[in-house]
Amino acid sequence: MRILITNDDGINAPGLKALEEIAAEIAGPEGEVWTVAPAFEQSGVGHCISYSKPMMLAELAPRRYAAEGTPADCVLAALGDAMPGRPDLVLSGVNRGNNAAENTLYSGTIGAALEAALQGLPAIALSQFLGPRIIEREDIFEAARVHGAAVVRALVERAPWDESADYQLFYSVNFPPVPGAEVKGVRATAQGWRRDAFFSTEATNSPSGRRFLWVKGGPQHTPTLPGTDAVANLEGYVSVTPMRADFTAHDRLAELGGIFS
Fold it and tell me: What positions does the domain Survival protein SurE-like phosphatase/nucleotidase occupy (predicted)?
């Protein structure tokens, strides 16, 4: 199996090293793991692509590239330039922090998987929820390392992919904020919503007196509704959420049609 990996934390991120290990186990001794990741951190860029400017792509080692672009750019760079032929699977992550609930909409990790799906490729985004039980540990990605390959293998071998659909399925996997040995299992979940956990801005002044705004997130340990991603993670479970790029609210189409008929 030929696997492409990328992330949004950057080419030198520890989570990418964890993903390399997961991908190598899935690819097997006869497979290939290709890395095309951002040269610098690209957290929060979503599905952004560098449409109005070029990007530089640097080969760091065989099958390993750094792109001065976004995670979605990295997928495009791999397919259009770096890789000979198409990969069998695209993995994005392992993100430092969860991409559950509303974080999904901002995530560059998700954006890379979404772009791969739009290109007709099976794709999985992997993220590690952080919390007080693991943040001081030597390896904060332990849960992802211990359970990542098994979850990916189950999705590759047994999950639906809907290759013929206009908007192909991809998957978001979030590992809980607990040590690997304390993970309780895996749950299929919907995307949740953290109430009162909005992104906001905070003003600060530089030493020169200039005023700047920092964007900051809301509380991450607010439980979401039962059956959704963040609450499963906070209860110690890996969450697996099937996703599509189709934003249509299909449950409202008939009502809207009645208004304009």
Answer: 3-195
Q: Which amino acid is at 1?
A: M
Q: Is the peptide bond before 94 cis (omega within 30 degrees of 0)?
A: yes
Q: Are the beta carbons of 91 and 139 closer than 8 angstroms?
A: no
* 196 marked ligand binding residue: no
Q: Which CATH superfamily is domain 2-193+223-260 in?
A: Survival protein SurE-like phosphatase/nucleotidase (3.40.1210.10)
* 8 has binding-site annotation: yes
Report yes or no: 45 and 70 within 8 Å, Cβ to Cβ: yes
Res 197 pLDDT > 90: no
Q: pLDDT tens for residues 61-86?
A: 999 999 999 999 999 999 999 999 99
Residue 196 predicted with pLDDT over 90: no
Print burial letters for 135-168: b (CB count within 10 Å at least 16), e (below 16).
eeeeebbbbbbebbbebbeebbeebebeeeeeeb
- Give yes or no for a contact between 6 and 35, defined as CB atoms under 8 angstroms apart: yes
73 marked as part of a ligand binding site: no
